[in-house]
Amino acid sequence: xxxxxxxxxxxxxxxxxxxxxxxxxxxxxxxxxxxxxxxxxxxxxxxxxxxxxxxxxxxxxxxxxxxxxxxxxxxxxxxxxxxxxxxxxxxxxxxxxxxxxxxxxxxxxxxxxxxxxxxxxxxxxxxxxxxxxxxxxxxxxxxxxxxxxxxxxxxxxxxxxxxxxxxxxxxxxxxxxxxxxxxxxxxxxxxxxxxxxxxxxxxxxxxxxxxxxxxxxxxxxxxxxxxxxxxxxxxxxxxxxxxxxxxxxxxxxxxxxxxxxxxxxxxxxxxxxxxxxxxxxxxxxxxxxxxxxxxxxxxxxxxxxxxxxxxxxxxxxxxxxxxxxxxxxxxxxxxxxxxxxxxxxxxxxxxxxxxxxxxxxxxxxxxxxxxxxxxxxxxxxxxxxxxxxxxxxxxxxxxxxxxxxxxxxxxxxxxxxxxxxxxxxxxxxxxxxxxxxxxxxxxxxxxxxxxxxxxxxxxxxxxxxxxx
Length: 468
Fold this sequence. Notes:
It contains 18 helices and no strands. By secondary structure, it is an all-alpha fold. It folds into 2 domains: 175 residues, no CATH class; 282 residues, no CATH class. Keywords: Acyltransferase, Cell membrane, Membrane, Transferase, Transmembrane, Transmembrane helix. This is Peptidoglycan O-acetyltransferase. InterPro entries: Ac/AlaTfrase_AlgI/DltB, AlgI, MB_O-acyltransferase, MBOAT_fam.
């Protein structure tokens, strides 16, 4: 089940809200837990057992860590932590990377081992990292142990951000799990945020997707350079508005239920360096790797060689987290190498350049990265990069002109919407006119109606990050 669907908007969500707000507060975590399992099980019923198993494992690990903490017995505490990490990473490795490992083993050693052919549980990368953050935080004594398994299950399975993030670390919502207060203000803000996210996904991401798919279906080795540019620019917009739209909807739903999830995007395409880009893009993932991998390895508190090693390891893991394919590993290393160069000397050079040049530099490298990201077939990736840089073939043809004219208006809208222009304009109007909420309500209602109208006609409406 996806947020941008008639089923969710007109059936699941209204029923969930009615049940949630009608029952006494002491039962609301139980209601959310059950509703979240139904939400997840709608598309993956057999993997509900896997999620419940993961929940029980991490709940038990927390209890073990707390028990031995009171006994002042460090080996016992470590045993609880290692139990959680081993089971979680073991499940993630089996389901997500098992066939990848076997395929490469067969290829490298000329074997013929059978593939596992197991379906990837939706969102396993997200809820696995989320669950591990709890046991690590308990082990570090940053949060108290959660002794109510229903409350803990609510945290792990919470449907607003269950299958595509943002990754919510336990310590950011530990208090709200059992002590949150729903309010009309929160519900109002949540509805606004949800509508904005829905509009991003349905009106922007889904429409520019058509351009990218048109280009990707062509014979890559013979497409004109400007067609290749149009295509990857379209994908750059699609992945941003798709994922940030989902994050907006998740944050909005969280507010409705009394949770305050941290932001996951902050206008990343306005960045002036790759280092800054990754402070603005998928913030929850970057924060997770920083908190639980980079800093424990020493971060930048060690010598320069070890610091650079730590950066490369984190970015290798960041890449492979996105998928069991070599292109994702190269994608992570691509950013890791650039960030190392920026850390060593590039940032000092960039700081002397005009802002516009710094943004051009960043966008150029980010767009190239999306070519690596989008093609799991390495030969196609290389061919696309060749066409992108004008190696062989034509600059443009009649199809290029057609695609440009039929999408230029949408591209202009996407370009503006990916900056903070609308946000600043709204804030300026708000300062001068205290009844700006009238325009806001009209705009949001219009966006909602348009989004629903599009959904009625759409037959293909996936979120890109579901597969991660």
